[in-house]
Design brief:
Largest sheet: 5 strands, antiparallel
Number of strands: 33
Length: 363
């Protein structure tokens, strides 16, 4: 395994016990104030869950059985937890905070999203429940709660079971004031809603005869999109093309509002911008002699706004530091397999999921 061979100079900080499952049942809280906290559930009986920090587990106990693959939703150790569970044949969603049960809602969790700015917090989810009087209809209820578990919005409506799908679902904008639609497949239109009452407040439309391949929204009025391989900024109700020196079609957007940075990546290079769309840095790999295709690149924003990347053929990850204006770089002892396991990182440390276990290393 690459991480064992390449981390001889790295300091191992955390390796939790074998009952911490990665994937949907375990996740690093990269957006929290302590971004390497690890939210986990116990696979032995699916009734224990908590957040591990520096090897210490903050445990809680569910009244039913946690549902494999759904996991517990949270943004921080001290914030709200959304706990999907099952008692007998009945699904339940519990809202908990610091060991206290705040609410218990019958049904099965569908779409969900969480938001925090480090002080305030919100969560939204849709609960599905079968209609006992019909084999063909079901009930869905959409909720919004604040960080204290107070109900901000609730709407119940009946749906046809055969029409159930996993189409566009609402996620919070970065400021927490609105929702925008996301979907697994490209959209021609992404609708915007108020995060107070789900009232429609606008939409993002792809250019004519095109689709939105990716979309990230800082607010209801500002965001970034990719359509037909071109990068756009959304402002004043419309998409405006960005003039970026990318050498091939844009294919991925990342946004980090803590550092106020946006990264747009093509096949062989990437650009870093601020939230106003101002270009701060452009990286393009030198082309090896005799090679016509650009080197592939895999770049990500760190939690401090730095950038880590690996190119085709690289043996170790490179970090460009934000504080240097992306002019200073350092090689980090993480290989390609390790880079694929990184959940969140800084120029000096990284949190990884290795063999279904969380690992925190310092370079």
């Amino acid at each position: 395994m690459m991480i064992k061979a390449k981390l001889g100079t790295a300091l191992l900080l955390v390796a939790t016990t074998s009952n911490a499952n990665a994937g949907p049942d375990g996740v690093f809280l990269c957006d929290s104030q302590a971004p390497y906290d690890f939210l986990t559930s116990d696979l032995n009986n699916y009734r224990q869950f908590g957040i591990r920090r520096n090897g210490q587990s903050l445990s809680d106990t569910d009244t039913g059985a946690l549902i494999a693959g759904q996991g517990v939703k949270a943004t921080s150790a001290k914030g709200l937890m959304v706990v999907p569970s099952q008692i007998g044949e009945q699904g339940w969603i519990e809202l908990r905070k610091q060991g206290r049960l705040l609410r218990k809602i019958p049904g099965w969790i569908q779409f969900w999203d969480t938001w925090t700015d480090g002080r305030r917090e919100k969560v939204t989810f849709t609960v599905w429940d079968a209609d006992p009087g019909s084999r063909f209809t079901a009930w869905e209820t959409r909720y919004i709660f604040d960080g204290n578990g107070s109900l901000l919005f609730e709407k119940r409506y009946q749906v046809e079971i055969e029409e159930e799908d996993f189409g566009p679902h609402p996620v919070f904008t970065a400021d927490g004031e609105a929702f925008y639609e996301q979907a697994g497949d490209p959209l021609s239109v992404a609708r915007l809603y108020s995060a107070t009452d789900f009232r429609p407040i606008g939409k993002v439309e792809a250019p004519k005869d095109q689709q939105l391949e990716q979309l990230v929204m800082a607010s209801a009025t500002k965001g970034f999109a990719i359509s037909a391989g071109r990068a756009y900024r959304f402002e004043h109700g419309a998409l405006q093309p960005l003039s970026l020196p990318l050498t091939s079609a844009a294919r991925k957007i990342q946004m980090d509002t803590r550092s106020r940075r946006v990264l747009i990546e093509s096949w062989g290079d990437f650009a870093v911008m601020d939230l106003a769309g101002t270009l701060l840095y452009h990286f393009a790999s030198p082309q090896p002699a005799g090679v016509s295709m650009p080197q592939g690149i895999n770049a990500r924003l760190a939690i401090d706004g730095s950038v880590g990347f690996m190119r085709t053929g690289d043996e170790m990850m490179t970090v460009l530091t934000r504080h240097s204006g992306y002019t200073l770089s350092r090689m980090v002892p993480l290989g390609r397999d390790d880079w694929n396991r990184v959940a969140c990182f800084t120029p000096n440390s990284a949190a990884l999921l290795v063999d279904d276990q969380p690992l925190l290393i310092k370079f």
